Amino acid sequence: MYNLFLTGKIGIGKSTLLKRALKELNVSLGGYTTERVFEGYFRKYIIKSLYDNNTTYTILKVDSRDNSKEHFIDSFEKGALSILDKSLKERNLIVLDELGSAENDMSLFTDKVFKLLDSKKIVFGVLKENDCDFLNAIMAREDVIVITITEDNRDYIIEDIINILKSWQKQLEV
What we know:
This protein is an alpha/beta fold. It has a single domain (2-173), classed as Rossmann fold, CATH 3.40.50. 37% of the residues lie in helices and 33% in strands. The protein has five helices and eight strands. It has helices spanning 14-23, 73-90, 107-118, 133-140, 158-173; strands at residues 2-8, 29-39, 42-49, 56-63, 68-71, 93-99, 122-127, 144-149. An eight-stranded mixed β-sheet has the order 5-4-3-2-6-7-1-8, with helices on both faces. The radius of gyration is 16 Å and the shape is globular.
């Protein structure tokens, strides 16, 4: 199993490094990235499919006036699952940007993540720095490499990340 995750403080550059690394690889991509969109008082967090580059699902909406949150569980249990199912069948590298404690009680989604981790596909993602059963179970796996991104290493760690992913890619091509 080939599973690599980046973790670190909010805003440290985990997703930025993930996207930079993906640009350096010549591999079919699946999974999703997460993006933040501002609409008036609201911050919407959407997942964008890398399987087809068109499909998006809103997963969270935050009202900046009172910090209230609305989670869209169907976006995970239907939308994200559909992306991940197709990716598992037809892509070589599956991106999970980003996993956090919100997914802890979404068993359909978390079961799919563990199925991906058990597969022979390369899984590359971001883990929020949260303490929950779901994230702890991922980090405790022997077949998972977790790299903590810090202010001290974020400017040079990209080469190590790319080297790991390229070495796995070569192993899978044999």
